[in-house]
User: Which sequence fits this backbone?
């Protein structure tokens, strides 16, 4: 059974940093693109970042470009999202996605 488990969310002040992790189990995803999405209250789920299987290609939403870095460790079947200079509008539940699989999400709240 495939499971994706996100962690690393929390309550932080504007300008702070967080590192989200998503650990996959049940199969190996070393050849798959991995991605992060987020959903704020009352809004549609939106793309945040993605990384190719080799890690050599990344893509970011304009809203997080320059503030977020996605990375992966294929040996650990884990994808990360380093977020810096967090803004109020980054508040959302963050989900990782690998092929058709989604994690349960981790809450990020940015509040002063």
Assistant:
């Amino acid at each position: 059974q495939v499971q994706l488990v996100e962690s690393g969310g929390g309550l932080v002040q504007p300008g702070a940093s967080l590192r989200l992790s998503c650990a996959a189990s049940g199969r190996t995803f070393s050849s798959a693109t991995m991605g992060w999405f987020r959903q704020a209250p009352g809004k549609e789920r939106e793309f945040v970042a993605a990384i190719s299987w080799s890690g050599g290609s990344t893509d970011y939403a304009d809203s997080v470009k320059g503030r977020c870095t996605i990375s992966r460790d294929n040996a650990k079947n884990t994808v990360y999202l380093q977020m810096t200079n967090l803004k109020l509008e980054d508040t959302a539940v963050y989900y990782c996605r690998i092929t058709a699989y989604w994690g349960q999400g981790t809450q990020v709240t940015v509040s002063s």
Remarks:
- The chain has no helices and eleven strands.
- The first strand starts at residue 3 and ends at 7.
- The chain has a mean pLDDT of 95.
